[in-house]
């Protein structure tokens, strides 16, 4: 995945879903990575609903005292970490960070919008079937792309410090462990089909 992402990023303009970025023992999977020239848009997709009215008022991600709201902190730390690794791997590029979420301030035009998606799981595999006309669903505008660069900047030093502390304890201890191959290996989530 890392090699495929590197290959795709050689294009002047590209959108990559689940982009794999690796730099100095750190690997991130970016939900959506959009490249245009020397600019990367890092887009983290979440099901937690945002509110564009609160965003415009400056209160969606930031509390009354100016700190990051606790209910968004984990998501924003995740974006900050991804941005740190992406900037380290591609230092000449500029990175803009976003959260893509359902928006509480928007109203769906279609009744029963959620019921128009059927989710099927088989083990770790998930498939989504669309009930009804997909073109009609594409016209729905219930998601909002929230810019979070300010929040990422506010968290960067803290996330970098925590990462360095974690890596200092983990990386020296990394070693190849003997693998016990057995019957249960057939269901391993890391199995790669040849």
Report on the structure:
By secondary structure, this protein is an alpha+beta fold. It is built from five helices and seven strands, in the order αβββααβββαβα. The radius of gyration is 20 Å and the shape is globular. The mean pLDDT is 89. It has helices spanning 2-8, 52-57, 70-89, 134-138, 149-170, and strands spanning 13-23, 26-36, 39-45, 94-102, 117-122, 125-130, 143-147.
Which strand order spans the largest sheet, edge to edge or round the barrel? 1-2-3-4-7
Name the beta content range.
25-35%
Tell me the series of helices and strands, N- to C-terminal. Answer: HEEEHHEEEHEH
Number of helices: 5
Distance between the termini: 15 Å
Summed over residues and divided by their number, the pLDDT gives a mean of: 89
Percentage of helical residues? Answer: 25-40%
User: By helix and strand content, what is the structural category?
Assistant: alpha+beta
**Which shape, going by the Cα principal axes?**
globular
Number of strands: 7
Tell me about the largest β-sheet.
5 strands, mixed
Radius of gyration: 20 Å
Lay out the secondary structure.
Layout: H1 2-8, E1 13-23, E2 26-36, E3 39-45, H2 52-57, H3 70-89, E4 94-102, E5 117-122, E6 125-130, H4 134-138, E7 143-147, H5 149-170
Parallel strand pairs: 3-4
Antiparallel strand pairs: 1-2, 2-3, 4-7, 5-6
